[in-house]
């Protein structure tokens, strides 16, 4: 009967459907992401049946995000009036729901009210604290657990991995009575998060088995540490071994490395590979392809990728606008933004790309209008990056007083990127007065870097204050800071060769 009703195109009367079949219908709707349909079925179910301990866990999973927060609370209130409010599966589902809603105190209340707690319930509470970032409380829960399984250890290990606490991660890893691929992946991540790239590779090489997450984790470690060459080499190693097929994340990481290196031919090769595997239709891959072609200077290619794609999300639109900004097509970027508004809602990254486009194209009024409207018209909160962009926009155009006013009226402390944008403009326009105001703010930061010292030195040099310029250079040398050497690179035979100033070979 259940199979017939699930497949039938003619909807039966609610009274004809038994409770078991209703639960299957609701579960299918939840799996398909049809939360509205699932709750409609739930209402129909109640016309002839009483929901049971299989109905509620499925519905609780469906409302475990902030969009359905009020429905989630209402559902909990309904459950409280039923005989199933003390059922362990229902209570564990409630705990998980509150954890997903990031209401950790409510999750703990549910946990404390449970008369019987199995290992699944303990793990759910442990995972809630780890996900919430409360590792100290998670340790207490972990220590109190009457029994631990592999999942318990993996939860703690992943918590330490995400925070980059490699010592405690290693301690848990070494104490584990058994390990699976998840355990090894977390250890790779832990090493990578603390910058121990060599340690991450050592763990990876020692793994008894690897899945696509293993490869993606190490690829991500290399990418996040700026080792783009290693990303490409590992990606090729993965292709040669053929034991694990890459997924969309593998492709986006490899393409990001190509973008960072300017490896156009390798990027094209990965594009073809993604097409062969059926991954090129992923919006994440599309966005990465646009970014790669843009950073490799191929305007036509990234436009073709975008306009040939059948599905475009905000990441794809943002990548397109960023690519146009990079190549100075500010007016076109603004037109694309108008087109975007007809199809999807912009986010904070959209406005960073737009402000950058205006800055590189000298579109002062348009940039200021976007900056002013992003909160009022689009509900996008301004971040440090947006202030950096507007200061850069005004600074490039010579409106240094206006740029300084933006910094002076920011709702939070200006970061180095904001100050650097205005200081650079002060050097270009030889404005010592505002430049020294910026330097005064910069000196409130702990520890100046080589870029800070050189920018201040250049400020004084641009205004013919040579003694002060030399003094700042001497201060940099006395502090032991060495100016980062300039680097050039060329692509030969799918490999990037790097050259420092002064290299002869």
As residue ranges, the low-confidence spans are 1-10
Strand content: under 5%
**Helix residue percentage:** 55-70%
Biggest beta-sheet profile:
2 strands, antiparallel
Envelope shape = globular
User: Termini separation (Å)?
Assistant: 77 Å
Number of helical segments with 4 or more residues:
29
The overall pLDDT, averaged over residues, is 90
Structural class label: mainly alpha
What radius of gyration results from the CA coordinates?
28 Å
Folded structure, characterized:
The chain is mainly α. It contains 29 helices and two strands. It has helices at 2-7, 19-31, 35-45, 55-62, 69-80, 88-100, 104-113, 119-132, 135-144, 150-163, 166-175, 181-193, 197-206, 212-224, 228-241, 248-261, 264-277, 283-295, 299-308, 314-326, 330-341, 348-361, 364-376, 384-396, 400-408, 416-429, 432-442, 450-462, 466-478; strands at residues 487-492, 495-500. A two-stranded antiparallel ribbon has the order 1-2.
Structural topology:
Elements: H1 2-7, H2 19-31, H3 35-45, H4 55-62, H5 69-80, H6 88-100, H7 104-113, H8 119-132, H9 135-144, H10 150-163, H11 166-175, H12 181-193, H13 197-206, H14 212-224, H15 228-241, H16 248-261, H17 264-277, H18 283-295, H19 299-308, H20 314-326, H21 330-341, H22 348-361, H23 364-376, H24 384-396, H25 400-408, H26 416-429, H27 432-442, H28 450-462, H29 466-478, E1 487-492, E2 495-500
């Amino acid at each position: 009967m259940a199979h017939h009703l699930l497949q039938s195109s003619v909807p039966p009367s609610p009274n004809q459907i038994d409770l078991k079949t209703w639960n299957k219908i609701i579960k299918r709707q939840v799996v398909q992401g049809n939360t509205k349909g699932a709750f409609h079925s739930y209402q129909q179910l109640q016309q002839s049946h009483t929901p049971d301990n299989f109905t509620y866990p499925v519905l609780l999973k469906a409302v475990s995000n902030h969009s359905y927060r009020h429905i989630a609370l209402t559902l909990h209130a309904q459950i409280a009036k039923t005989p199933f409010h003390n059922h362990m599966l229902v209570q564990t589902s409630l705990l998980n729901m509150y954890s997903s809603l990031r209401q950790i105190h409510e999750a703990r209340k549910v946990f404390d009210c449970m008369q019987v707690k199995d290992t699944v319930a303990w793990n759910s509470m442990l995972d809630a604290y780890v996900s919430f970032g409360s590792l100290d409380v998670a340790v207490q829960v972990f220590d109190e657990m009457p029994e631990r399984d592999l999942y318990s250890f993996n939860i703690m290990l992943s918590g330490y991995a995400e925070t980059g606490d490699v010592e405690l991660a290693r301690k848990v890893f070494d104490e584990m009575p058994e390990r699976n691929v998840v355990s090894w992946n977390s250890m790779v991540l832990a090493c990578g998060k603390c910058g121990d790239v060599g340690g991450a590779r050592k763990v990876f090489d020692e793994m008894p088995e690897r899945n696509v997450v293993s490869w993606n984790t190490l690829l991500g470690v290399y990418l996040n540490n700026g080792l783009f060459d290693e990303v490409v080499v590992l990606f090729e190693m993965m292709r040669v071994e053929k034991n694990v097929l890459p997924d969309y994340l593998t492709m986006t990481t490899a393409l990001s490395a190509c973008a960072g290196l300017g490896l156009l031919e390798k990027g094209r090769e990965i594009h073809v590979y993604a097409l062969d595997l059926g991954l090129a239709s992923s919006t994440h891959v599309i966005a990465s392809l646009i970014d790669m072609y843009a950073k490799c200077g191929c305007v036509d290619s990234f436009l073709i990728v975008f306009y040939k794609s059948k599905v475009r999300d905000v990441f794809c639109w943002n990548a397109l606008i960023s690519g146009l900004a990079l190549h100075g097509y500010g007016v076109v970027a603004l037109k694309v933004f108008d087109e975007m508004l007809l199809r999807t809602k912009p986010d904070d990254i959209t406005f960073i790309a737009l402000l950058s486009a205006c800055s590189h194209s000298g579109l002062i009024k348009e940039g200021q209008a976007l900056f002013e409207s992003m909160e009022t018209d689009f509900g996008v909160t301004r971040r440090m990056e947006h202030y950096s962009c507007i200061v850069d926009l005004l600074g490039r155009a010579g409106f240094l007083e206006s740029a300084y006013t933006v910094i002076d009226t920011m709702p939070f402390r200006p970061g180095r990127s904001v100050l650097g944008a205005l200081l650079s403009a002060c050097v270009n326009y030889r404005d010592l007065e505002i430049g020294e105001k910026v330097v005064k703010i910069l000196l409130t930061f702990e520890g100046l870097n080589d870029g800070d010292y050189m920018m201040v030195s250049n400020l004084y040099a641009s205004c013919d204050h040579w003694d002060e310029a030399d003094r700042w250079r001497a201060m940099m040398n006395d502090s032991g800071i060495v100016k980062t050497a300039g680097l050039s690179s060329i692509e030969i035979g799918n490999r990037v060769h790097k050259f420092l100033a002064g290299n002869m070979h």
